[in-house]
Design a protein that fits this description.
The protein has 325 residues and is mostly helical. 75% of the residues lie in helices and 1% in strands. The protein has a two-stranded antiparallel sheet.
Length: 325
């Protein structure tokens, strides 16, 4: 990640700190500040700013609409954590654990309302377009979350079903973030579509990388214990592909660990990982991830601005897709 991008993240972080949501009752608003201050890469507003900067150098007047995508993203995390009963988010207690579920629901609701306040700062002639596109994206994110929840009780999930789920749950918001920057910059429709496609392909690759990191990352660099997806039987690309490719013997072993209620977590991680290694799942996932990354770079290449103006976006994409395993 180059110095320009790092400076933009600092600027975005400061703007987030300056956001005001309300004060009373305190237990409605404190969780919002808590959520926004516990970290995060700020990738989504950063993408909006970088997309805008393809066309214009001065971006300060679009910072608040850019923050809307970060507030929306964190709103979804509040509600997702309740659905998943997740104890931690970014290494700290989740809002529903720090306060309670009702508070987390209401605080999330306020965050969603404030998203529209931030988007209302868009120029009048662009407002309807931005709100319409955001609403479509927000509905797709909900669709993706529902698909993910459905997978928990679905006995067989195909690779294509999984890719479609992560497209909606994760990637479309990256696509909207980039498209928003293009819309605010006055880009032509073909560039706006390319920005959206770039974000979607990058987002799918990004999620596949996360799946891979959960199993194979050095946990001291990953920031959390690896193997969490294996422990919870999460239907990631790795597990789906392993079930698809496994022999009868390996399939029996996988199903044994999936069905087992009481187990030693590390023993389960080691057993499942051994099958992944045997089937070459790490390399298959890496290949699939790189395919989407290549598609994203093709989209970026086609955007009709000078190559020198694309450097920061390309550097960020490289950073996201080349995290250490």
């Amino acid at each position: 990640m180059n110095d320009t991008v790092k400076k933009l993240i600092v600027t975005i972080d400061q703007e987030i700190k300056n956001l005001s949501f309300g004060q009373h009752p305190s237990n409605l608003y404190e969780p919002i500040q808590y959520t926004l201050q516990v970290g995060g890469k700020r990738i989504r507003p950063l993408l909006t700013v970088l997309a805008f900067r393809l066309y214009h150098n001065q971006f300060e007047n679009i910072l608040r609409p850019a923050l809307a995508v970060e507030v929306f993203h964190n709103f979804t995390l509040l509600h997702d954590d309740i659905m998943d009963q997740a104890p931690l988010r970014r290494g700290k207690p989740t809002v529903h654990n720090q306060w309670n579920e009702n508070v987390a629901i209401l605080s999330g609701d306020v965050m969603l309302v404030r998203v529209y306040d931030l988007l209302l700062e868009v120029k009048d002639h662009l407002l309807k377009r931005v709100i319409t596109d955001f609403n479509n994206c927000a509905a797709e994110v909900c669709e993706g979350q529902q698909m993910d929840m459905n997978f928990e009780s679905q006995s067989i999930v195909t690779v294509q079903e999984y890719i479609n789920m992560i497209k909606y749950k994760t990637a479309v918001l990256l696509g909207f973030s980039l498209a928003l920057g293009g819309i605010l910059a006055g880009a032509d429709e073909s560039d706006i579509q390319l920005l959206k496609d770039f974000g979607i392909n990058l987002g799918i690759g990004f999620q596949l990388m996360d799946d891979l990191l959960d199993v194979y990352a050095d946990h001291t660099k990953f920031g959390k214990q690896t193997g969490g997806d294996i422990i919870t039987n999460k239907k990631t690309f790795l597990l789906i592909k392993a079930l698809e490719l496994s022999s009868k013997e390996d399939s029996t072993i996988l199903e044994y660990w999936i069905q087992k209620d009481k187990f030693d977590p590390q023993e389960k991680i080691n057993a499942v990982k051994k099958i992944y290694d045997k089937l070459g799942i790490r390399y298959i996932t890496t290949f699939q991830m790189n395919e989407y990354y290549a598609l994203a770079l093709e989209d970026l290449e086609k955007i009709s601005v000078k190559e020198t103006r694309k450097i920061d976006l390309r550097d960020l994409a490289d950073y996201l897709m080349k995290r250490e395993i």
